[in-house]
């Protein structure tokens, strides 16, 4: 990877600082995307379906909030397809935000914890948003917190605005036999796509990030913020449907699906 070495004079001593460059950040993003594809071989298809839905709203310049944006994979694709869009990318992980800012300087990243009341005030909105989007992120949030997130989101979306959430969402609490089949379809597709040549997994990617000297400061900030993701708190489709309806989204349904990998769409009243 390419790094810039900066030398600072501090009390007549010299300190070398490794700074992450744009090119190095893009390399990390390529590796991030490949790691994510190991869990989602049809990830790009889901991105495409989601952006199609945003485009179908009919505005060339939609205002879009990317919830749990990570390093900005979805936001970057949105802006590439809809260059007049205004995309506000929100996450609480300092390292992923730092990586995204270095890789995609054209994006607007905001540091905010969706589980903290009032998080929408940090977005600097000057009008109601047309859509909120998310991919493989909101399952980290517990079901009770998810209800609060969607309730606050409803307050900044326009009438007819969309929530588009792509993630693995299971139906085992309602249709257990179908849920098993959905998982099996996804597992078989993944096996066909990769066989024995699976990309590196989530943990391996993070281990590599933690070993990179250029990311030391961001890693330290991440540890301080307690941003490590563990578990899958709201993996059930019913968690999201119930929370969205309570928040003022009367129409909720699956817009695209492959196995248990689905794009959930909700329309603001």
UniProtKB/TrEMBL annotation:
Q: Does Methyltransferase appear among the keywords?
A: yes
Q: Which UniProt keywords apply?
A: Methyltransferase, Transferase
Alphabetical list of Pfam families matching this protein: Methyltransf_25
Q: Which residues form the Methyltransferase domain?
A: 64-161
Q: Would the keyword Methyltransferase be found if you checked this record's keyword annotation?
A: yes
The residues forming the signal peptide are: none
Task: List the GO molecular function terms.
Answer: methyltransferase activity
Q: What GO terms describe the biological role, i.e. biological process, of this protein? A: methylation
| Protein name, entry field | Methyltransferase domain-containing protein
